[in-house]
Amino acid sequence: MHNKSVAELSRQLEGGKISSVELTREFLDRIKAEDSQYNSFITITEDQAMADAKAADEQRAAGNASPWTGVPFAHKDIFCTNGVTTTAGSKMLANFVPPYDATVAANFRTAGAVCLGKTNMDEFAMGSSNESSFYGPVTNPWGLSGSGKRVPGGSSGGSAAAVAARLVPAATATDTGGSIRQPAALCGITGLKPTYGRVSRYGMIAFASSLDQGGTMARTAEDNALMLNIMAGFDPKDSTSADRAVPDYTATLNEPLKGLRIGLPKEYFSDQLSPAMEEQVRNAVREYEKLGATVKEVSLPHANLAIAAYYVIAPAEASANLSRFDGVRYGYRCEDPQDLSDLYTRTRAEGFGSEVKRRILVGTYALSAGYFDAYYLKAQKVRRLIQQDFINAFKDVDVLMSPVSPSPAFVQGEKTSDPVTMYLEDIFTIAVNLAGVPAMSVPAGFVDGLPVGLQIIGNYFDEARLLNTAHQFQQVTDWHQKLPQ
Amino acid sequence: MQWDIVIGLEIHVQLATKTKIFSGSSTAFGAEPNTQASAVDLAMPGTLPVPNEQAFRYAVMFGLAVNAEIGRRSVFDRKNYFYPDLPKGYQTTQLDHPIVGPGFVDIDLADGRSKRVRIHHAHLEEDAGKSLHEDFHGMTGIDLNRAGTPLIEIVTEPDMNSAEEAVAFAKKLHSLVSSIGICDGDMSQGSLRFDVNISLKPKGSDELGTRTETKNLNSFRFMEQAIAHEVERQMDILEDGGRIIQETRLYNGDRDESRSMRSKEEANDYRYFPCPDLLPVEIDDAFIESARVLLPELPDDRKARFKEQFGLNDYDAGLLSADARLAGFFEETASHGKDPKLAANWVLGEFSARLNAEDKTVTQAPITGTQLGQLVTRIADNTVSSSGAKKVFEALWNGEGDNADAIIESQGLKQVSDTGALEQMVDEVLANMPDQVAQYQQETDPKKQKKMLGGFMGPLMKASRGQGNPKLFNEILLKKLKG
To answer: Are residues B268 and B208 in the same domain?
Structure first.
């Protein structure tokens, strides 16, 4: 059962072939047996999951089930879950139990899905390797037999590893600069970062508010569509969420791709990409040509400025977003504070890890008097140029295709000593967040036995086309069905 | 050396919305600490602000009332600083794109001059919570009920040149925001708070001196005292050859002393940047109209009408029109009283004095404008004397009767205006006071005569048991004493 997709499990439940209680038990047992080697979960909510599974079975028996009723899944530990510890991968929130559900969490609850627990992540979603988590690094299920344990990517590394290891069929994730697509690519699964504003951010612990977007991780594009069906939509609690209709994302999965216009941004096929990686991506594009798509080279002229702009804007927003962690109302508080200044400085010095501190410092600096214009304002101008690049590109093509990451999963510890090298992991993903457009990572081959992801970028609110494009690829390839070990 | 005083004000006005500016929590004053603080107000992780439309409408109403441009694109910024009663570690406010642009307010001064004070802008922002330093044994309690209460911060140009002008402006602004219903005007609860920027410059100089800011003055009296205090302090320093340090000061009204809170060097770098959780708000014509239709008559317009409609003088019309509730009470009194000027005297005199003495607001008064109006009518038609009217007013206030006529009747306060009866009393009194009559008749100075006339009034009022019409008594006396 654990190798089946959400769509298949949903049909099994609907056909009465299996109960949610049995299914939930099986996945919980797998987590208990296997997760010690991956560390993909921070919290496992066994009792709650079994109770929810029982309730789901009753709901199915009563005849008012949704496709998700009784299907197990997991939340990235950045989504607040009522009554369940929510840490954002930080010591700062080790004891934090929210009295409310994130809108995304409430949506899954309403749909009757069974949450098995909260997945590991880089601290406050800051990282590309899941090594900055206070709860320890996550290990990629791929490459275990090699020369060293490999990273799953980050920041949604726990969700990606858990899906790849088939500990859950699907998991929620978030993407601020590549945190869904890069771990999905490194773990050989399918992930979608929707258009900014498509999924509510309410109750999703903020890293960089203008870039953060909740999204989906599963093994197939179809499962991503099923997830987005219940996640997308306007939320009156998030005034940046988009007030526009949500289509049934599964309805258009089987549209033929004949005539699809694919653009290949030349800036994303540069020296930074290894020839082996490039070959896999170009092979995937050839599959699309076989399906009737046309391919042309396009340009995103300001793509090379994306990393620099991102590492001003994201830390600037983070420096303010993380000010609330002050030891006053909730979360970690230092022992025996002597006065207010001591409370603040020791709480934050002891509660945050080094990558979080580094970004708070960078962001504070960028916003400081005398530097604001040169850094923050300049970065915002670059951001508008990058947005315009995408708008221009989509005048001629329907989707853009590129690699997700410059290389496959690297060995743990390889890049931790050099933050800039780590930041370059996101060189192909970050511009998408600055522009706010949707993008997917789809399994598209292997290099040295490690998965390679194909990035498919869409126009604003064109998630249905992205999912259709990915699904059709998965009808003619089996990269997404390859299993680790 | 002669100095010019230059004053600018920053005023925080709490808007009278039912809920907070970015959450659905109640803004009611006086609840148990932290019972009106939601997850959003507590800045719990992942929570987001949702703007309150009514706060925008109130801010636009203010803009229209001060003849200001309305900012068509309203942007919120984060002002970053750490303080325990600031849950997010930043205040959501407006820096470069405020909702209200430049405008002005005209103020009237005691010497009859009128002066225009320019408004630089007014912006929307959220209030902080409160730090409670007492009752916690050396620790500090935090009450977040107030956190997120909508404010407009109004910033004036440095157009005021004396404490009198600053206080006149403050009172005018208080009158304005309460009249249009966007603020409850209760200064004791912090609904309006004033920061005063003060600098001195040599008389006639074009160059502004270094200014200080005195924060959080919540009464007109403290404001006046604080300005006097600060002007004197700066003058002492300058005349001793010293320099003013740009700083924020706190004034203690009970002790009439001030101390430095922080200097410019110690000031926070607030690292303002646009709040990414809130999209810019576009204010269109329809929204401005939706605010305009809510605007009641403005105090200046009401004052002009009172002068025109009731023939009041400028001063009385100004006092009566400033407070919407007092103005309403006056209009009710005037509509039931024959003499609007007399009605104005009674509302501003006896009625206001009584409210003050009992620390009551107009709405808490135990008498209605109708009741006072009926009394005014009886004074105007000589049914009751002014001293009798005071007794009637007292009785109405104490609930000893429903209307003036019933009280006049039951307490026998009806004025005697029967000239025959009055003449008889005068004859009797004069007959008993032959010496005084002789003295009066020998006196040649009309002033002294007038004074001596008063000596007969006492016995006459006594003889009439207070009910004789004093005006008629006076006429009869003059006639009789002439011989």
So the answer is: yes
Q: Do B324 and B234 sit in the same domain of this protein?
A: no
Query: Under a CB-based contact definition with an 8 Å cutoff, are residues A40 and A167 in contact?
Result: yes
B154 lies in which domain range?
3-291
Residues B104 and B135 in one domain: yes
What secondary structure letter does DSSP report for A373? I
Domain extent for A42: 6-258+467-481
Interface of B with A in 255-274 (CB under 8 A): 269, 271-273
Of A106-120, B9-23, B301-315, least confident by mean pLDDT is B301-315
> What are the tens digits of pLDDT across the range A390-438?
999 999 999 999 999 999 999 999 998 888 888 888 999 999 999 999 9
Considering CB atoms only, which of A204, A369, A372 is closest to B46? Answer: A204
Condensed to tens digits (0 to 9), the pLDDT of residues B231-290 reads 999 999 999 999 999 999 999 888 888 999 887 767 789 999 999 999 999 999 999 999
The answer on B341 and B456 residing in a single domain is no
Cβ distance B46 to A96 less than 8 Å, yes or no, reads no
pTM, whole model, 2 decimals? 0.88
A179 has catalytic annotation:
yes
- Residue of B182, B116, B150 whose CA lies nearest to B41: B150
Residues 213-242 of A with CB under 8 A from B: 236-240
The answer to whether residue A110 is domain-embedded is yes
Same domain, residue pair B370 and B453: no
ipTM value: 0.96
What CATH number has the domain bearing residue A116?
3.90.1300.10
Q: Is residue A70 part of a domain?
A: yes
State the catalytic residue, choosing from A20, A40, A76, A402. A76
Contacts of B277 in chain A (CB under 8 A): 206, 209, 239-240
Tell me, yes or no, if A357 is annotated catalytic.
no
- Is the CB of B128 inside 8 Å of chain A's CB atoms? no
How many distinct structural domains can be found in chain A? 1
| Domain membership flag for residue A15 | yes
Pick from A82, A101, A321, A336 the residue to mutate for testing the B interface (most B CBs within 10 Å): A321
Same-domain check for residues B342 and B223: no
Cβ separation of A368 and B271 shorter than 8 Å?
Answer: yes
**Using CA atoms, how far apart are residues B213 and B261, in angstroms rounded to an integer?**
10
Query: Is the distance from CB of B230 to CB of B258 less than 8 angstroms?
Result: yes
Query: How much helix, strand and coil, in percent to the nearest 5, is found in chain B?
Result: 40, 20, 40
A76 is catalytic: yes
Question: What CATH number should be reported for the domain holding residue B438?
Answer: 1.10.10.410
A203 domain residue, yes or no: yes
- Which residue among B369, B393, B410 closes a domain? B410
Q: Which of A138, A202, A212 minimizes the C-alpha distance to A180?
A: A212
Strands, E assignment, B253-393:
257-263, 273-274, 281-282
Q: Among residues A132, A159, A179, A405, which one is catalytic?
A: A179
**Whether A95 contacts A331, CB under 8 Å:** yes
Judgement on whether residues B399 and B444 belong to the same structural domain of the protein: no
The structure tokens listed for B207 are 């160059």
Helix axis angle, B53-65 relative to B163-179, nearest 10°?
130
Q: Which of B222, B256, B291 is the last residue of a domain?
A: B291
Q: Which of A93, A96, A237 sits opposite B48 (nearest CB)?
A: A237
